[in-house]
Design goal:
heterotetramer, A alpha/beta (256), B mainly alpha (297), C alpha/beta (406), D mainly alpha (383), C: 406 residues, alpha/beta, Rossmann fold, 14 strands, D: mainly alpha, ABC transporter involved in vitamin B12 uptake, BtuC, two-stranded antiparallel ribbon, 16 helices, disordered C terminus
């Protein structure tokens, strides 16, 4: 067992000569809630995109549980155990809520069911379908979405769409969950609910969580450790309380 | 010699394709729709020239009557493009592009059958004053070919300047880039789209003229093949790109003529043109001059 | 849920009842849809819309004209004729629709299809029901494969061979070019037979071949390829031929000869005005059974009448129409012949199959000769037309010079 | 007995609507044809409708569920028709005829079409929306040209391939049986995890990748299955006609199939079946009703109906009218199933809500130098 669930080594990427992100070193321990913060355009989402295979890093590499994942395709990385949500919610809008979650089970070995099984509706197909539906309902009930399970995702209110996205990511049974600005667009009430949910997820699923967030109350409230990015470079990292006191960080956030 | 002649023929044909493709590209870039009825607007332009040239020949000098016919064709096509947009496409603004595509197909078929009702199915010969040809040593190039080519270049340059320099043109770019934002900035979307259709349809009328100068026969299905070819040309050049439409059109015309000039290849001309399209798109998924676009995650 | 159950049960019952009653109503055996006819119905399937529409429209108009003439003159022993003309758009998959609709509408005798491609489907269907077919213009050799089908036009192979023979006899020593439509069965069919029958001397001198496909009419490349030829064989229809000739002005030698088949008939009409056509410097001629530019005789009378009846500007007359006109009269004469010479009886409600038996017997009989406007007419006399047992027509074709070289 | 009734009651009938509908039609007409009381025009009409339904269902997989625009469906059908027809011809040479020849031809035709489905699916991995549409259109034209220029001995050249016609009294039974097969495959696929993966790609490709869906695999799978069934339709076509000519399978035909799918509604199999039936019926009826001089009005009427239907179905301004007066509202009224939340619907949606696919988003540009621009996909489709 490795000490770190996620470890990046000098992770960086250039777009047409511009170094968007450079030398990012993340060390995320098991069951940690780790924050990635920084001003707009600092390259936080780009880091997420590299970690999930959307972009291929041009420098450095990263490891999940000691296994190097650099160069794998997005779906392979997901199968290895990194799941994510998006800054702007990306649900399968024309599918029902329960099916959104069931898509997440796609690669789980226990729901293995070949294409031929499905075409002929064999016993295996029916069993896995039933099991998947039951499991999806479990997950939905955790997030309080059970009653809406047969609505189209498109019709959910904003807050519940966020939750559904997290539920879908969890359904893929990841080792590491990446949350991209989960509290964006939420009021303080919803944000504090969300904090509860994130903590609950960590405890219930033994999950390691890496999140990007602008809402400092949320960051200060739940993150164990932080990394601050500025202009694609690491500005500070360490315990949350200490990092937030760092004058450099304050300067980056508040300006001179 | 043979080679040069084929090349000139190809460039001339390509000029016609380019003219149509320019209209396609304009409409596509701004209204974001594949206007399958564009080819049939060429047909309407052709019939207008036929009607007005026939009625005014004899009473007016040939050149004047031709110019008069062309002018009428441009006006009729512009009105038609404007009307079609208002009646058939505007109600669907905001609906799925597929619905608009199907409507465009319906409009195309409607215009074709309307032409058959009015003019019959047989091809009509369109009289043109003989423009003669230019001799350069052994080479003879007809003036109609030259006119086609020069006009296409002029139209392309004019369009480029129009889009780059005028207020309306810049508004067009803005609408193309982000319709909502443009609207918020005070651009009148309906006006811009109408203007686009008017320009595109006027170009179609000109394309009708050049097609008729090349082959002086008009029939209800006159526009459908050039329409598809020009669409192909626009995609090869990168749909949405004005220079791309020109490039794609010329390329396609040259390929078509060279393929036709080799007896064993001639039956496969269409297949060759489409194969080139596929290869270009596989190598460059947005066509030669199309903007490369990356999706933001 | 109980409601649903009830509904399913009632629906099943209703369905069972419907099926049962349909069973009861069902009649066995082949139906004679013509039994309630008040006229003798002649059916034809042709392109009335789309790219080939002018051929179908000419056939429809001319057949209608012939039928109106016959009816106005008192019909056949008082029996009137009626035309059913359906649009197949020159597509063979539409023929099942047009044929079955006409058949069930009481069609007793058919003119088959106007064009070859749909005709290949028509012949199978008409053979199954034993319906008589006399096609005005479907030239494919296979059209008359079965015993119920006859052609008024020359078959492709005949045209190809006859043209080659004409070349062998008259154009020795000249350089030959061919321009044909590669994806068209009429054009490529004639081309193959033509090349097969052409003398070796032409071939060793080199026969230039240019082709085109589809609907495009820009032939600048093809004209270039054939510019050195002295005789150019054009087994194509008028529209591309006219486009070719127009492009050829100034490129192809003025002394060259354009030589086509029956598809070239009416090429001058493509040019709108006669003057415009005369501006083509080359000789234009074709081998055909009909000359729409005849200046006297039966063909002239027909054209005059057609132009007086229909808007010839919109849908000009051509040999398709003439052949259709002849087809109707041939059927009329054949029925007369059957009654008078063979003692056959028939009326408005006779079944298609019976008509087919009667007409096949007449058309196969050696003593039946039809006098028509197609074929070589001497002066004001109509031509002699007969059919051999395989369904091919016997009449004389002629080379018509539409215009001599300027 | 009561146990049976309970079980019977618990069946989710709506799942089986399509099967029941098609089977009832098949049953009624089979009985009628066995009683020899169907006129051949009805038989031919049924054949045509059956073929259209197979085409509509199969294209529905690519357009409605995968969300890719294909204008080349007739190309796959063309391959199926030629290869199936040729197989039947070769089989009849060795004495195999009738239903066995048909079944073997169907297998061969469908497999060949599936191979081409794979080949066409490959560019679909790189190209989007209208670019893919033109590539599929190009593919269709290339296939057509290739068969048109084949030698007489191989595929008959421009004359077309002569194919053995199947007994017209029974062919529609076979075609409708294949509709049932096609329905079974499509519906079982769509209602499985694989179908969900395909629908997920349609709804949001980026999210689908992030959720671990192998997009390449499922795009190809959808293209292959869709092409295979188009191939089946082609083989049926070759048995319904005595000749197969490539000229029939032009892009206009592809477009007609697309019209059926679009009018049927996105990801709506029942809708696709209904619109295929209506459109085919309309075409045939217009041909037989507008005869002689009126034939010219046929396309005019068809085009008008088409444009009006599309505008009625899609115009944003007519949304409220539409929601009150449509087939679904009507059936809901009859069956009183309007707000049954516990019921699992198929993943139907609205064409205009699909954000990532079938979009036309190229920008107007006057630049000769190619520039890169970033699009924000969340803006798309929201206009």
């Amino acid at each position: 067992m490795c000490e770190y669930v996620l470890k990046t080594e000098g992770l960086g990427i250039s777009f047409g000569g511009l170094r968007a992100v450079d030398g990012v070193e993340l060390r995320v321990r098991k069951k940690q809630i780790y924050g990635l913060i920084g001003p707009n355009g600092a390259g936080k989402t780009t880091v997420f995109n590299m970690l999930t295979g959307v972009y291929q890093p041009t420098r450095g590499t990263f490891y999940l549980d000691g296994e190097e994942l650099k160069g794998l395709s997005q779906d392979k990385i997901n199968q290895k155990g990194i799941a994510r949500t998006f800054q702007n919610i990306r649900l399968f809008n024309n599918m029902t809520v329960v099916r959104n979650v069931m898509v997440g089970f796609h690669n789980l070995p226990k729901y293995k069911c070949s294409f031929i099984d499905s075409i002929f509706r064999t016993k295996r197909h029916r069993d896995t379908e039933r099991a998947m539906r039951a499991r999806a309902k479990e997950i939905l009930s955790i997030f309080g979405l059970l009653d809406e399970r047969n609505l189209l995702a498109y019709n959910l209110p904003y807050g519940k769409q966020r939750k559904l996205e997290i539920a879908r990511a969890l359904a893929t049974n990841p080792k590491l969950l990446l949350l991209d600005e989960p509290a964006a667009g939420m009021n303080p009430q919803e944000t504090s609910e969300l904090m509860e949910t994130i903590r609950f997820v960590r405890d219930k699923f033994d999950m390691t969580i890496l999140l990007i967030e602008h809402d400092m109350s949320l960051v200060a409230g739940i993150c164990d450790e932080l990394t601050v990015l500025n202009f694609g470079q690491t500005l500070a990292c360490g315990e949350t309380s200490e990092v937030l006191k760092d004058p450099e960080v304050v300067k980056a956030y508040l300006g001179d | 010699m043979e080679f040069l002649l084929t090349l000139i023929n190809g460039v001339s044909l390509g000029g016609i394709y380019a003219m149509i493709a320019l209209g396609y590209t304009m409409v596509y870039g701004i209204a974001k729709m594949l206007n399958f009825a564009h080819g049939d607007i060429i047909m309407v332009g052709g019939y207008s020239i036929f009607v007005f040239a026939a009625t005014s020949f004899g009473t007016l000098p040939p050149w004047v009557s031709l110019l008069f016919a062309v002018l009428m064709a441009v006006i009729i096509c512009a009105l038609l493009g404007f009307g079609v947009e208002k009646l058939a496409y505007k109600p669907l603004r905001g609906a799925s592009p597929l619905a608009v595509l199907i409507t465009a197909i319906g409009v195309s078929s409607f215009l074709q059958s309307l032409a058959q009702v009015f003019f019959g199915s047989a091809a009509k010969f369109v009289q043109f004053p003989d423009l003669g040809s230019l001799s350069l040593g052994e080479l003879t190039v007809s003036y109609s070919t030259l006119i086609t080519l020069i006009s296409t270049v002029i139209v392309m340059l004019a369009l480029t300047l129009f889009v780059k320099l005028t207020k309306t043109g810049r508004a067009m770019l803005a609408v193309s880039e982000d319709r909502e934002a443009a609207q918020l900035m005070g651009v009148n979307i309906n006006f811009i789209i109408s203007i686009t259709f008017i320009i595109g349809s006027s170009l179609a009328a000109l394309a009708g003229l050049f097609s008729l100068m090349n082959v002086p026969f008009i029939k209800p299905t006159f526009g459908s093949l050039p329409g598809i070819k020009a669409f192909t040309a626009a995609v090869i050049g990168g749909i949405g790109s004005i220079p791309g439409a020109m490039l794609g059109g010329i390329l396609l015309g040259v390929v078509e003529c060279f393929s036709n000039s080799v007896p064993t290849l001639a039956p496969y001309t269409n297949a060759i043109e489409f194969a080139i399209l596929i290869i270009i798109l596989i190598v460059k998924p947005t066509g030669i001059l199309g903007k490369k676009r990356r999706e933001k995650v | 849920m109980k409601n649903v159950f009830k509904k399913v049960v009632s629906f099943t019952l209703a369905a069972a009842l419907t099926v049962g009653s349909m069973f009861a109503l069902a009649s066995c055996g082949k139906k004679n849809y013509a039994k309630d006819n008040e006229t003798i119905k002649i059916g034809v399937s042709g392109p009335l819309t789309g790219g080939a529409a002018k051929y179908g429209i000419a056939v429809k108009n001319s057949a209608k004209m012939a039928i109106d003439e016959i009816n106005a003159a008192g019909g056949l022993y008082g029996m009137k004729f009626e035309l059913l003309a359906l649009d197949d758009e020159h597509k063979k998959e539409n023929v099942t629709t047009t044929y079955s609709a006409m058949y069930e509408d009481g069609m007793q005798i058919s003119l088959g299809t106007v064009t070859t491609a749909p005709g290949l489907e028509f012949k199978e269907l008409s053979k199954d029901d034993n319906v008589f077919v006399l096609t005005p213009s479907a030239t494919g050799d296979d059209i008359v494969e079965y015993s119920n089908a006859y052609q008024m036009c020359f078959a492709d192979s005949n045209q190809g061979t006859a043209s080659a023979q004409y070349f062998n006899a008259n154009y020795q020593g000249k350089k030959v070019g061919v321009f044909y439509k590669a994806d068209d069965e009429y054009s490529s069919g004639i081309y193959e037979k033509f090349i097969a029958s052409l003398d070796q001397s032409f071939k060793s001198a080199g026969v230039e071949t240019a082709t085109f496909t589809g609907d495009g009419l820009d032939f600048s490349t093809q004209v270039n390829m054939l510019k050195d030829c002295e005789v150019i064989f054009l087994p194509i229809y008028t529209e591309p031929a006219a486009a070719f000739m127009k492009k050829g002005v100034g490129v192809i030698s003025n002394s060259a000869i354009y030589y086509g088949c029956d598809g070239l008939d009416g090429v001058e009409a493509e040019f709108g005005t006669w003057d415009e056509f005369m501006a083509i410097p080359q000789e234009v001629s074709f081998l055909s059974h009909f000359n729409s530019k005849a200046e006297s005789g039966p063909a002239y009378d027909f054209v005059q009448k057609y132009n007086a009846t229909y808007d010839s500007d919109k849908e000009p007359v051509n040999q398709f129409g003439a052949a259709a006109y002849d087809c109707v009269y041939a059927i009329f004469e054949a029925l007369k012949f059957a009654k008078e010479n063979l003692g056959k009886e028939f009326d408005e409600s006779t079944s298609p199959s019976d008509y087919c038996d009667i007409l096949t017997e007449v058309f196969n009989s050696d003593s039946f000769v039809f006098h028509g406007i197609t074929g070589k007419c001497e002066g004001n006399n109509k031509s002699d037309i007969s059919w051999d047992d395989s369904g091919f027509v016997n009449k004389q074709a002629d080379k018509y010079v539409v215009k001599p070289a300027n | 007995m009561s146990a049976f009734i309970v079980k019977f009651k618990n069946i989710k009938w709506k799942r089986y609507t399509n099967y029941i509908g098609i089977s009832l039609v098949l049953l009624v007409f089979t009985v009628l044809t066995l009683a020899d009381s169907l006129p051949q025009s009805t038989l031919f009409l049924l054949e045509k409708i059956g073929i259209s339904i197979i085409l509509s269902i199969s294209l529905g997989l690519v357009v409605g569920f995968l969300g890719e625009l294909s204008l080349g469906h007739a190309g796959f059908m063309c391959i199926g028709a030629y290869i199936g027809g040729k197989t039947a011809e070769l089989l009849s040479d060795v004495g195999v005829e009738g239903i066995f020849a048909l079944l073997i031809s169907v297998v061969v035709g469908a497999l060949t079409a599936a191979v081409f489905g794979f080949i066409v699916g490959l560019p679909a991995l790189r190209l989007k929306g209208d670019y893919l549409a033109i590539v599929t259109l190009a593919f269709c034209e290339i296939v057509k040209t290739a068969f048109e220029n084949s030698s007489k001995e191989s595929f008959g050249g421009p004359m077309g391939l002569r194919t053995p016609r199947f007994d017209k009294h029974y062919l529609f039974i076979i075609i409708f049986s294949f509709i049932l097969v096609c329905l079974a495959v499509m519906q079982n696929l769509i209602r499985s995890k694989h179908g969900r993966a395909i629908t997920a790609i349609r709804d949001n490709e980026i999210a689908a990748r992030a959720t671990g869906i192998n997009v390449t695999k499922y795009k190809l799978l959808a293209f292959i299955i869709s092409a295979a069934f188009a191939g089946v339709a082609g083989v049926m076509y070759s048995f319904a006609n005595s000749t197969v000519a490539a000229s029939a399978f032009d892009y206009n035909y592809s477009i007609e199939i697309l019209v059926m799918v679009v009018l049927g509604g996105m990801g709506n199999i029942t809708g696709g079946i209904i619109s295929a039936t209506v459109i085919t019926f309309l075409n045939v009826k217009l041909t037989t009703m507008l005869t002689g001089d009126n034939a010219v009005l046929k396309d005019l009427v068809y085009a008008l109906i088409l444009v009006l239907i599309v505008i009625y179905n899609n115009a944003p301004a007519l949304k409220y009218v539409r929601e009150r007066y449509n087939i679904r509202a009507l059936t809901d009224k009859i069956f009183k199933k309007r707000s049954d939340v516990s019921y699992d619907t198929d993943d139907e949606g609205k064409w205009d809500r699909v954000p990532t696919k079938i979009k036309m988003d190229e920008l107007l540009s006057v630049d000769v130098v190619v520039r890169e621009s970033v699009i924000d996909p969340d803006k798309e489709g929201k206009e």
